[in-house]
Amino acid sequence: MKQEAKTAAGAPATLWDRTRQLASKEILETALRLFTEQGYDETTTAQIAREAGVSQRTLFRYFGTKEDLLGGGQEQFGQVLTDAINEQPAGADIWDTLRAGLAAVLALHDSREQALERFRLLHNTASLRAGWLEKRMRLQEAVLPLVEARMSIAPGSADPRARAVIATAFACLDAASMTWVDNGGKGDIIDLYDACLAAVRG
Question: What integer is the mean pLDDT of 164-168?
Answer without folding.
Answer: 97
